[in-house]
Design goal:
Helices cover 26% and strands 27% of the residues. By secondary structure, the chain is α/β, with parallel strands linked by helices. The protein has a seven-stranded mixed beta sheet. It has a two-stranded antiparallel sheet with strand order 5-8. A hairpin with a 2-residue loop joins strand 9 and strand 10. The structure holds glutamine (GLN). Glutamine binds next to helix 4.
Length: 199
């Protein structure tokens, strides 16, 4: 795999950002925790972790991050959104991914479960999907590709370079989804070029 030189931002207002950071660092990526709009400057990819979407949205409002996050998602750079991260992209929140989500539709914490799923683009081997108070996708727009289903319902989708899923790939040792995401990160971008020029 080409090693990305661009830094990956991980929204770190709340939730499971550390597990993503560990996995991505293990794959050779540079990561930066994102808490303010300034933290988004120059990053080449963005991860929106799982957690509690209501709390995350409050943090996003407090930090005036809604517009900068939406702008980043619209920039075409890769985004990986898991669980609550997918909820905040949907049509009822930041409205930058053409899907609707039903929060906690799989039940509460006691109804969390694991299931083997096949993810398009990640090879034939099943991926162990960890679902924790997971959102259910109730609508996917025409431009949204379904990458995996569980019981006939989409659980992983992609719109352009935005990957979103109901489950938590960062909570397994299986790094295939994070690799697919990293492979989409441009090896260099305008910010890197500018930095090299200035050096
Ligand atoms: N149920 C949570 C929410 O609605 C999401 C759960 C998760 O991210 N594991 O925000």
């Amino acid at each position: 795999m080409t090693q990305p030189t661009g830094t990956i931002g991980i929204l770190a207002l709340q939730g499971g950002f550390e597990a993503h950071a560990k996995l991505l660092t293990g794959l050779g990526a540079n990561v930066r925790e994102v808490r303010t709009a300034a933290d988004l400057a120059g990053i080449s990819g963005l991860v929106l972790p799982g957690g509690e979407s209501t709390t995350m949205m409050l943090g996003i409002e407090r930090e005036s991050l809604a517009a900068p996050l939406a702008e980043f998602v619209g920039s075409g750079l890769p985004v990986l959104a898991t669980c609550a991260g997918m909820i905040i992209l949907d049509d009822a929140h930041l409205n930058v991914l053409n899907v609707s989500c039903d929060r906690n539709a799989y039940g509460g914490q006691v109804h969390s479960f694991e299931a083997d799923i096949t993810v398009d683009g990640a090879g034939d081997d099943a991926f162990r999907g960890v679902f924790i108070r997971a959102p259910r996708l109730t609508r996917t727009g025409a431009d949204v590709e379904t990458l995996a289903t569980h019981d006939g319902v989409p659980v992983a989708v992609r719109e352009d370079r935005v990957f979103a899923m109901s489950f938590h790939p960062e909570l397994t040792d299986d790094d295939r989804i994070h690799r697919i995401f990293l492979e989409m990160v441009p090896v260099t971008n305008v910010t890197d070029i500018n930095r090299k020029k200035a050096a």
